[in-house]
Amino acid sequence: MRNFRTYGEVPATPSHPVLAQVGDQRARLGQRLAKIHHIVPVVSGKGGVGKSAVSANLAAALALRGFRVGAVDGDLNGPSLAAMLGVSPEPLQVTDDGVVPAVGAADVRLVATDLLLEAADTPLRWRGPPGDEFLWRGALEAGTLREFLSDVVWGDLDFLVVDLPPGTDRIQRFLEFVPDPAAVLLVTTPSRAAARVVARAEALLSSGTRFGTVMNMAAGSCPHCGGTLPLFDAPADPGRDPHTIDFWGEIPFDHRLAHATDAGRPIVLDPDASRAATALWALTDRVLTECEF
Amino acid sequence: MRFEERQLPGDGTMGVVFACPQCGGEVAMLTNPMETQVVSSLGVKIGGTTLPDQPMELTRTFVADGRDDAFADAMRPRSVHWSEDATNRLGQVPAFVRGMVKRIYADYAQEHGISEITPAVMNRARSDLGLEGM
Ligand SMILES: Nc1ncnc2c1ncn2[C@@H]1O[C@H](COP(=O)(O)OP(=O)(O)OP(=O)(O)O)[C@@H](O)[C@H]1O
Ligand SMILES: [Mg+2]
Hints:
The complex is a heterodimer of chains A (293) and B (134).
Chain A: H1 18-33, E1 36-43, H2 51-64, E2 69-73, H3 81-84, E3 92-95, E4 98-99, E5 102-103, E6 109-111, E7 125-126, H4 134-150, E8 157-163, H5 168-177, E9 184-188, H6 192-204, E10 211-218, E11 220-221, E12 228-229, E13 247-252, H7 255-262, H8 275-290
Parallel strand pairs in A: 1-8, 1-9, 2-6, 2-8, 9-10, 10-13
Antiparallel strand pairs in A: 3-4, 5-6, 11-12
Helix pairs in contact in A: 1-4, 2-8
Chain B: E1 2-10, E2 13-19, E3 26-31, H1 33-41, H2 57-62, E4 63-64, E5 71-73, E6 81-82, H3 84-91, H4 95-111, E7 116-117, H5 119-129
Parallel strand pairs in B: 6-7
Antiparallel strand pairs in B: 1-2, 2-3
The complex binds adenosine-5'-triphosphate and magnesium ion (MG).
């Protein structure tokens, strides 16, 4: 039988040390993240539950509290943070140190794919040989997320909020780059479907990870009569009730939140405290407590 | 085996030649366009000279439909001069990646002690660095 050496045992050819290049990528990431004190991914196994609205408001609220805050729109194919933080595409400066992020509401620094693309309705597409794109698309997406973390001139940040796309696989992928986030926000709604998904996401997070759920779109009040407006039936299966998982906040359904989000002005900036804004501030304070402030 | 040469003859095929340091015998490895793409999607480069990555090089290399003015690349004051022909040729690079490509050529020139970038220098850098796709 022939005796093969492993790849690592083959002396690297000086002109293309592949493993060293991968090592360099990791090192670059590590150096950049070392200056970011708290990384807070906002996740959910489920789509449309308000991850981006929560991310935008959390980032703005932390910035209004005086912290240095950055935000990454990790939803490369469905970015929404730039619009929610009122950032319009301007050329991003590139220096030797990296790409300078855009600046949004409350001076939150931001990178997002929609800042790079031709128009607001341009889908993210990649250059490559036609056919079998599924083979390499995931690698490019992961690489782009890595570069959003490692190649941006974040400087010293107190918080980096990362809005992740729906799907538990995305949580896993992110944890490969940031294995030890300061706190993970698991956004859900009071629907059975969402509760199940949260249970799945929870199962993914290791016991060492600090995370809590946010119940978004909880019963709101009718703008006309003031009556209670429950959007969903409460989860029937109490074992999977997100309230039983570490519960960090509840944000009511509030048309003013939807409106402010669409207008690119996080509702926490609004001094006329709406119920949603009050809830988002309470959530922000909870995150601060969890991060030991 | 010693690395000898890397070529991108077209259509995404990559050819890499290795030689035996004792007898000089050579073997060539070909990757098909898919394999080449998979490797470059990982942000690693095979063969030729490699310069340190530019900021967001992977993203900027592979994003299609990028906005012309998505990036404004600050140029370090460098001793390198661009000939008129080279400048014209650079003007044909899609604007989304032009600033990055310009930085790469300038870094290449600096590393090789080249004071003027001409189309010939660009050709050499392209094949040395595997920039054929840019
Ligand atoms: N508490 C709320 N009250 C009213 N509207 C809300 C509330 N939370 C979110 N919304 C609105 O619901 C819509 C979906 O929210 P958002 O885009 O934040 O969800 P998402 O989880 O990020 O979605 P996706 O999975 O597509 O990324 C948005 O228009 C947002 O403004
Ligand atoms: Mg979203």
